[in-house]
């Protein structure tokens, strides 16, 4: 089932999400539907708050990035099969230099901006079988994880922009929350007029 993506302006995107346990109802189905929703929207990551659920789960599939010619062979290979489920994740450490990369977000269509993030992260999480992992990621894999992790912390990539950049995109963000945007996937707009 493909869920509508919750648009910028919905309070669920600004809430710190709650942990779940392995008895969460129909968890397998939720994960399957999240992947279907993400692929339908041509995304590389999706967090539960983006489908209206304030719970600590996000998914990633960074394979589309593996085609980037600027990547080393090793990084391209890592991204090729980088499909994962993160439940109750906690970033334990962010290290190495910050670097800029142009990010976008399914909840904020038509806005792409450079965001600075640390090169390397150490993250603890449970997978879809509730097996615990502590792993280290770098480069684009780390960036995709950090972006989705921010979602379960109630942070959007636009929150990380300079005050000048925020002022420049304020009108666009307002339009997104009102449903005045063209996305090629279903969205749920918090301020759109009912019956439009």
UniProtKB/TrEMBL annotation:
Transmembrane segments: none annotated. Fe cation binds at residues 105, 147, 151. The active site is at residue 148. One of its GO terms (molecular function) is peptide deformylase activity. It comes from the Bacteria. The keyword Protein biosynthesis applies. Its EC number is 3.5.1.88. It is an enzyme of class 3 (hydrolase). Keywords: Hydrolase, Iron, Metal-binding, Protein biosynthesis. InterPro entries: Peptide_deformylase, Peptide_deformylase_sf. Removes the formyl group from the N-terminal Met of newly synthesized proteins. Requires at least a dipeptide for an efficient rate of reaction. N-terminal L-methionine is a prerequisite for activity but the enzyme has broad specificity at other positions. HAMAP family: Pep_deformylase. Belongs to the polypeptide deformylase family. This is Peptide deformylase. It comes from Aquimarina spongiae. The gene is def.
